[in-house]
Amino acid sequence: MAASPEPAPRTDVVVVGAGISGIACARALTDAGVPVRVLERARHVGGRLASPELPRGEGVDGRPVDLGAAYFTVSGSDQPAADGFAALADDWKRRGLAVPWTDTLSARDADGTWEAKPGPQRWSAPGGLRSLVADLAEGLRVETGRTVTAVTPGPAVDGDAACAVVLAMPDPQAARLVSAPLRAARVVADQQWEPVISVALGYDERCWSGDLTAAFVNGHPDLSLIADDGARRGDLAPVLVAHTTGELARRHLDDPDAVVPTVVDAVGTLLELDRGPAWTHAHRWTFASPAHPHDEPYHLDDDLVAVVGDGWGSPKVETAWRSGTLLGRALAARVRC
């Protein structure tokens, strides 16, 4: 009888997904001396902190536009790992990668009344929020354009053995990858997420009130948020980004461009604009935010398959960073690759 082949060595922790939670996890593991590879199906890191450079033909000369998260905030020091994120934000600020943007946003009540809403300091990034993820990823082993199809017991990724596997993505996407024997499959099963379609609107000039930074559009049938991308990025480019409601997005997930006329009309009416945009660009987020976030900061089971992201706590950028960072520290204490 022929000898059985030797199993492939488990040399690395494999992180699937290069959004901020996956990159934060990989950074924490690397800092602890644990070898790690990050696999990302897109061409760039960033995930839902996407700020793609729109084609020159769309009127922005290659300028990045934040189409995912609108901003990030920094919690108080009473939050676990918050000091680490505050220090990271301060470092980004020192190097000019992130800037405090505003602590006051506009809000439209259901009856159509507008008022200023003070709140926590919102931060933005002159180079687009994706630039912050790219900064965290410096020096990490990241393979872009790498589509993963299955995570199986062992654990293994597409048949290749791993020391541990981290799924850094929304639950419905993780559910497509993990096989039934893994406990993670039960944790992420049947979790509902809300969709959003983001629409960038470029104008010939800034034709809205200078008081606009971003506005929550409460009670509107079609829009949930409008943000002044030129204001938050600091270059005053005449670009707005509008986020649809989940209800509108669900009706057009197969054809995101179909929402553009509705969004253009709604933005024009809400901001009392006297002209339409010169160009538009729609981007679909099928899984934008969790309907029911998990209570724990991450999932890690005994077979060393983990799930992280902004669905593990209040859905925001800091939550995703915290989820990945705390998991990375926990994994570093358990694995011996």
Tell me what you see in this structure:
It is a single chain. The protein is of the alpha/beta class. It has 9 helices and 16 strands. The strands form 3 sheets. The chain has a 7-stranded mixed sheet. A 6-stranded mixed sheet has the order 5-2-1-9-16-15. Strands 6-7-8 form a 3-stranded antiparallel sheet, with no helix packed on it.
CATH architecture title of the largest domain: 3-Layer(bba) Sandwich
Q: From the 3D structure, determine the CATH topology of the largest domain.
A: FAD/NAD(P)-binding domain
Taken from the alpha-carbon principal axes, the silhouette is: globular
SS-derived structural category: alpha/beta
Unreliable parts: 1-9
* C-alpha Rg (nearest Å): 21 Å
Q: Could you give the count of β-strands?
A: 16
Total domain count: 2
- CATH first level of the largest domain: Alpha Beta
* Mean pLDDT level: 90
User: Which homologous superfamily in CATH is the superfamily of the largest domain?
Assistant: FAD/NAD(P)-binding domain
Q: What is the CA-CA span between the terminal residues? A: 31 Å
Instruction: Please state how the strands of the largest beta sheet are arranged side by side.
Output: 4-3-11-12-13-10-14
Main β-sheet, in a few words?
A: 7 strands, mixed
The helix/strand series, from N terminus to C terminus, equals: EHEHEEHEEEEEHHEEEHEHHEEEH
Proportion of helical residues: 25-40%
Strand content: 25-35%
Task: Output the number of helix runs.
Answer: 9
